[in-house]
Design goal:
By secondary structure, the chain is α/β, with parallel strands linked by helices. It is built from ten helices and 15 strands. The longest helix is centred in the middle third of the chain and has 44 residues.
């Protein structure tokens, strides 16, 4: 999969312009606050429909403007496509795929597959389980639209159940109607758990291989999916899930929220037997996060038949020379959009790179 054209219109600080990336490595160089990250972010916006840096769409509109638009053209093994996202300060954002408006965000998933990696992605390892669930969910939503809808229905049912627990005057009163939501949570939650299990099982050897390569075999990464709900088949997990919800009703009523379920799932990560989430050094955290991202690349290729676009936002400064070399020369089939605040050593670069310079929101191709 390749991005063939990026057009931005009043998006953050970027001038109205069109950028034509190369099929391989694209390097966007410029000082801080000139628009490099904004350009990288605009591509990812067209991938999943939201920014990786903010949940507020109005933050993406240029100061003093009422609307912004990003259009990304891409090529994949099925042909060519175009995604446009229009953001309005006083209205809901509009997304079109090949000029056809979508009604639900789930309809966007799977057209343009991207992996986004920035220094902030270290939070996948170092912060709360919600970050690791988000990591799984984004990948699964890109490759499985049914997963997106199951997750949406699960979250809605959880919100309804929690609202009921807050309003009920007793656990007995809640029990009269809560079974409706319990059934939906168990059914959709079982689908989510089963697909997350499969994802982690497939990711494990790929992340281990990437981690070993990055650390020159000196460290070994282990990862395991962790869930409170037991079972191996969909029927087993559904039944177990329903039992847990029913058994926890009194506790949940006291807490006024649902205390067990896949909304508390996690990924256990160890390096040489040590829990890297709590005790890893900064270097180990960065390396583990990078290994997960490289594992993602391989999984998406296995599932879709081609690499996603890899977006690297100012990450080279976080890695030593050998790690930089392995990343930039990962595979000539892979398209990389790389931002950097400094020039990159020529010895690190594969042949046929394309350079851009960004200053004051304007991106220009740079002769080398």
């Amino acid at each position: 999969m390749k991005v063939t054209e990026i057009t931005v219109y009043d998006y953050r600080n970027l001038a109205r312009q069109k950028v034509i990336p190369h099929a391989g490595l694209n390097i966007f160089v410029g000082d801080n606050a000139q628009g490099k990250t904004n350009l990288a972010e605009s591509v990812y916006l067209c991938c999943i429909g939201k920014s990786p840096r903010t949940d507020r769409d109005k933050d993406l509109i240029c100061w003093g403007k009422d609307a912004a638009r990003v259009t990304v053209k891409y090529a994949c093994r099925f042909g060519e496509g175009k995604i446009s996202v229009t953001l309005n300060s006083g209205a809901k954002k509009q997304v079109t795929v090949n000029s056809v408006p979508i009604r639900r965000m789930g309809e966007l998933m799977g057209y343009l597959n991207c992996i986004y990696f920035s220094p902030n992605e270290i939070k996948i390892i170092s912060q709360s389980p919600s970050e690791r669930r988000r990591f799984m969910d984004i990948d699964l939503c890109q490759t499985d639209r049914n997963y997106f809808y199951s997750l949406s229905r699960l979250n809605n049912a959880l919100a309804q159940r929690n609202n009921l627990l807050k309003q009920a005057v007793s656990a007995e009163q809640a029990a009269q109607t809560i079974f409706v939501w319990d059934k939906q949570i168990a059914e959709e939650g079982a689908r989510v758990i089963l697909k997350r299990k499969t994802f982690c099982r497939n990711l494990k050897p790929l992340a281990q291989q990437s981690h070993s390569a990055v650390t020159d075999g000196k460290e070994q990464l282990q990862l395991e999916y962790c869930t409170q709900i037991k079972g191996e088949t969909l029927a087993e997990i559904t039944q177990e899930y329903l039992g847990v919800l029913q058994n926890n009703l009194e506790k949940d009523f006291q807490l006024r929220h649902t205390s067990a379920g896949c909304q508390r799932d996690d990924i256990a990560l160890t390096v040489n037997g040590v829990d890297v989430r709590n005790f890893g050094s900064q270097g180990q955290l960065r390396t583990a996060a990078l290994a997960l991202k490289l594992g993602e690349l391989q999984i998406l290729k296995q599932l879709t038949g081609e690499y996603p676009v890899l977006i690297l936002d100012d990450v080279l400064s976080e890695l030593d020379y050998d790690r930089q070399k392995r990343l930039l020369c990962f595979d000539p089939e892979l398209q990389i959009l790389l931002t950097s605040a400094s020039e990159i050593a020529p010895a690190l670069l594969p042949p046929n790179c394309k350079f851009f310079e960004i200053a004051q929101g304007v991106c220009r191709e740079k002769d080398v």
